[in-house]
Structures are given as C-alpha cells and as structure tokens.
C-alpha cells in the first residue's frame, strides 16, 4: 500500500497467563510508529514486564500476535527470533543482569560479536555505542567497578551496539541521582530509535515521551498525549499513578 508506513511495532490481541493460570495480559493492542517515543505506565502487577518479554519472544504462547517492522515474532523459528532480537533491544532494570565480561568494551562487543560482526566493524560499533552513552573513557574498566549509573549506561551501550530498531527500557531512571537521570534522558532523546520505556517515574515519561500508554490488569486503559494523560487526575488515581507532590504536568510539558 503506497503511503502507509509499516509500524515499528504492532501488538495485536496479545494474551498471556503464567503457569499458575492467572491472566497477566488480556488482549493487548499496541502500535508504535517508527521513531516514536512511548512510555508504558501502570501500577505494580499491571503486566508491563510481561508485555515487554513478548516483544522479542522470551514469553509466548498465550495468543495474539507481535510484529516488529512487519516481521512476526515466531517462537520456534530460531532464525526469525535471532533477527527479532537484533531488532528489539531490551535494557533490563538491573544492569548487572546484562554485564558479565571482564571489561566494558568486551561487554559492549559481546552482542554484535555473537551475530558474527568482527574486526573494524566490531570496533566501530563498540566505539559508537560507548560514545553515545558517554562512556568511551571507561572502555577498559571492569564493569563491576563502575557506579550504578555508569553500569546502566554501559547496559544501554551493550544494546545499542546491536543497532536495534526498537529500544525497550525497563525503569531506566531508577536508582539514578538527578544529574545521571538528566544525562541519561539527554542520551535517550538523541538516539534515532523507536523507544518504549516502562516507568513509574512520571516526570521522566513526560520529559522523554510525547505519548504514553497506561496498562492495568493486563489491558490498555489509556493511550494518548503524555501531558494530557498525566493531567487527568481521575484517570491517574484510577490506575494508582501518582505524580510527585507539587508537580504540574501542564506546566512541565509546556
Ligand atoms: N514468573 C511469574 N509467575 C507467575 N506470575 C507472574 C510471574 N511474573 C509476573 N507474574 C504476575 O503477572 C502479573 C503481571 O506482572 P508484571 O511483572 O508483568 O507486572 P508489571 O506491570 O511489570 O509490574 P511492576 O510495576 O511491579 O514491575 C502480576 O499479577 C504478577 O504477579
């Protein structure tokens, strides 16, 4: 179809229940356009992580469909899943889940090297990813000797080195001091990727994501302009979302 852009991400009728039988996703529809930055909000237990784990096929089998730039996430098809995992980079909440090599540079090289990238191309990817997160000077350090905020940046770099189309971040601002929080926001804003950010940090969502989606009870409860959603007190209260005391989304988003 001429003039119709393929969505970066299309989730259709996604359902999932954990083995104990309790449904965590009850029919989720979500479409992200290429280059969009979207916050995924919702109370504890809403299903946010469960949704994220479907985006590269870690969880599957409950029904519905996920497509990344038109390519279906087809569990069982190893080649398709490898391609999906190249396209969708997930930065988990705890950077230590993603860092396990002796040096920062080796950690960043690990993903692309696994894809068969070698030599000058591999070096270029590592350099580019470390520069993007401002960690070039730490390339030869032991990841576990870095501060938490620095380790989170390196975790972002490990994913960027895969040159993903979609970057998914789970609580990127948690445990960061105000300066690190702002610096990471600047980094994320500068990246030419589609971004889906799971967060309880509503001012961060407002700062980074023009659009927000509220997930509650495994269903999409609202989807729209972040400032408008955050300004709707009843909506926010109804989904156990609380702005920091004195924070005015209308003024901050202006
Ligand atoms: N491994 C698991 N086994 C069984 N139930 C699970 C498992 N992981 C999550 N759940 C349940 O699935 C539901 C959705 O959980 P999920 O972790 O996706 O929510 P969330 O929105 O990410 O929450 P939070 O904001 O607390 O991280 C919850 O009821 C949770 O208890």
Kindly summarize this structure in a few lines.
This protein has helices at 48-52, 78-87, 104-114, 119-132, 148-160, 178-190, 202-208, 226-231, 233-238, 249-253, and strands at residues 9-17, 23-32, 37-41, 65-68, 71-72, 88-91, 166-170, 194-198, 211-216, 219-225. By secondary structure, the protein is an alpha/beta fold.
Q: How would you characterize this protein structure?
A:
Its main location: membrane. Pfam families: ABC_tran. One of its GO terms (cellular component) is ATP-binding cassette (ABC) transporter complex. InterPro entries: AAA+_ATPase, ABC_transporter-like_ATP-bd, ABC_transporter-like_CS, ABC_transpr_CbiO/EcfA_su, Co_trans_ATP-bd, ECF_ABC_transporter_ATP-bd, P-loop_NTPase. The chain is of the alpha/beta class. The protein has a domain at 9-95 and 166-253: Rossmann fold (3-Layer(aba) Sandwich). It is built from ten helices and ten strands. The strands form two sheets. The protein has a six-stranded mixed sheet. Strands 2-1-4-5 form a four-stranded antiparallel sheet, with helices on one face. A hairpin with a 5-residue loop joins strand 1 (9-17) and strand 2 (23-32). Helix 3 runs parallel beside helix 5. It starts with 8 loop residues before the first strand and ends with a helix. It binds adenosine-5'-triphosphate.
């Amino acid at each position: 179809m001429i003039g119709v852009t393929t969505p970066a991400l299309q989730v259709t009728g996604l359902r999932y229940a954990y083995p104990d039988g309790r449904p965590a996703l009850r029919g989720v529809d979500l479409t992200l356009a290429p280059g969009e930055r979207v916050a995924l909000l919702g109370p504890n237990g809403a299903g946010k992580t469960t949704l994220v784990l479907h985006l590269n096929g870690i969880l599957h089998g409950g029904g519905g469909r996920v497509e990344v730039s038109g390519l279906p996430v087809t569990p069982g098809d190893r080649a398709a899943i490898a391609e999906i995992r190249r396209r969708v980079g997930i930065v988990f909440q705890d950077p230590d889940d993603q860092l396990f090599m002796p040096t920062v540079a080796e950690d960043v090289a690990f993903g692309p090297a696994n894809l068969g990238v070698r030599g000058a191309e591999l070096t270029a990817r590592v350099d580019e990813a470390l520069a993007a997160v401002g960690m070039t000077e730490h390339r030869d350090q032991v990841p576990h000797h870095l501060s938490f905020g620095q380790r989170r940046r390196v975790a972002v770099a490990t994913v960027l080195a895969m040159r993903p189309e979609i970057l998914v971040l789970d609580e990127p601002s948690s445990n960061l001091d105000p300066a690190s929080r702002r610096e990471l926001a600047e980094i994320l804003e500068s990246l030419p990727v589609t971004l889906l950010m799971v967060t309880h940090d509503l001012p961060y969502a407002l700062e980074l994501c023009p659009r927000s989606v509220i997930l509650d009870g495994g269903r999409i409860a609202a989807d729209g302009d972040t400032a408008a959603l955050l300004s709707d007190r009843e909506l926010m209260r109804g989904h156990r979302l609380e702005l920091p005391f004195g924070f005015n989304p209308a003024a901050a988003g202006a």
